[in-house]
Amino acid sequence: MSKFICATLIATALILPSANNYSPAFAGTCASKCGPRPIQFSPGQRIQVKVVNRTPRVLIIQKPSSTNPIPLQPGQELQINQGDGTEPNVSLLFWDDTGLPLKANISKLNFGTLGVELRPNWYAPGDRAIYILDDGRIEVL
């Protein structure tokens, strides 16, 4: 019996120090480390797009098949209605006539307004369009 107790004590003494070197693993959601949530509106929702030119140059904005190209002066804001939700996959194109790249920073300003800030970009080719999908997701292309 004493051999059994000695063996148990020795095994315990060998196991306990090695258990202290391990830290417990905590499971968590990606919400704390995934970055910001993607911008999305309700499918079929009427959306206004507010575009702001934050570059020192004139930019051109166009909603294909429904508007002619619209020049946007530096610092100028433009509001464009997306439609009534029956218009499938709406795009908003933008470009600089000099060919310099742009960066589109998007934000959800309120329940029905998408904010688009167009800024200079140092990396070509840059952003060229905002795409509003039927399911309410927003993509920058």
Fold and architecture overview:
The chain has 141 residues and is mainly β. Helix content is 13%, strand content 35%. The protein has one helix spanning 2-19; strands at 48-53, 59-62, 70-72, 77-81, 90-96, 102-110, 113-120, 129-132, 138-140. Strands 3-2-5-8-9 form a five-stranded antiparallel beta sheet, with no helix packed on it.
- Assign the structural class, choosing from mainly alpha, mainly beta, alpha/beta, alpha+beta, or little secondary structure: mainly beta
Strand order of the largest sheet: 3-2-5-8-9
Poorly predicted runs are: none
Percentage of residues in strands? 25-35%
Radius of gyration: 28 Å
Structure summarized in a few sentences:
The chain has 141 residues and is mainly β. The chain has one helix and nine strands.
Compile the SSE list and pairings.
Elements: H1 2-19, E1 48-53, E2 59-62, E3 70-72, E4 77-81, E5 90-96, E6 102-110, E7 113-120, E8 129-132, E9 138-140
Brief descriptors of the model:
single chain; mainly beta; five-stranded antiparallel β-sheet; four-stranded mixed β-sheet; 35% strand
